[in-house]
Amino acid sequence: MSQGITIAIDGPAGAGKSVVSKRVAQSLGYTLVDTGAIYRSVALLAKEAGVDWQDDGALKTIVAALDIRFNFVGDDNQVHLGDRDVSAAIRMPDISQGASLVSAQASVRAGLLDVQRNLAGKGGAVLEGRDIGTVVFPQAEVKIFLIASPEERAKRRHAELVAKGQDISFEEVLADQVQRDAQDEGRELAPLKPA
Ligand code: DC
Questions:
Q1: What does the alpha-carbon distance between residue 159 and residue 59 come to, in Å, rounded to a whole number?
Q2: What confidence tens digit (pLDDT) does each residue in 45-97 have?
Q3: CA distances from 35 to 31, 80, 143, 195 (A)
């Protein structure tokens, strides 16, 4: 029996990776791993523990103890830390910024490699992120690098945040995105780039 393939979907924030990976995973009956949600969870736990988003040593401890699970409910890919549903909390703008910062730390990236590979399991899996095709699953059978214009991406993110009841302007979303893009593309470790 075929165990399925690994599909990597990488690209910048707001390009549409989540929607595409969700639909692909649903139609193939594959496991879906939203790796951005994992970095976001580390940022959330750090904030709650009063740990600086650039404190590599303290972040390493948080990553080592990370107990994360995804749960598909209808069309929702819920994120759980232990018994807690953190799906909404990890989407807050300050956590987006924190995720981008923690993701530049060596111990965080190294510690999350196994977490991501284990969550993908042994069967078919769709993983969305920044470095899936280059670092996490370089052997993935399918690698997609999804892009869209910065304005279009910010427009989509803004609409998503407003729909979730957040009071934020388009300009703020665009400025935050420009800053995150620069951080994600410019970092030394596993920078955002096509495989
Ligand atoms: O896709 P996202 O916006 O939820 O990702 C949040 C942050 O996590 C993003 O700024 C970069 C980082 N990230 C990463 O470095 N590597 C990944 N595979 C996924 C996300």
A1: 32
A2: 999 999 999 999 999 999 999 999 999 888 889 999 999 999 999 998 899 89
A3: 12, 13, 15, 17
Distance 101 CA to ligand 1 centre (A): 10
Q: Residue 69: name the closest of 84, 54, 47 by CA.
A: 84
- Tell me what pLDDT residue 73 has: 84
- Among 7, 18, 35, residue to substitute to test ligand 1 (most atoms within 8 Å of Cβ): 35
Residues 192 and 195: their CA atoms lie apart, in Å, by: 9
Q: pTM of the prediction?
A: 0.92
134: which 2 tokens? 């280059």
Which DSSP category does 122 fall into?
S
Distance of CA 75 to the CA centre of its chain: 17
Q: How many CA atoms lie within 13 A of 33 on its CB side?
A: 30
Give the number of the atom of ligand 1 that is nearest the alpha carbon of residue 180. 10
Cα torsion through 54, 173, 185, 7, rounded to 10: 100
Atom 18 of ligand 1 has which residue's CA nearest to it?
129
What do you get for the CA distance between the two ends of the chain, in Å? 29
- What value, to the nearest 5°, has the Cα angle with vertex 32 and ends 107 and 145? 75
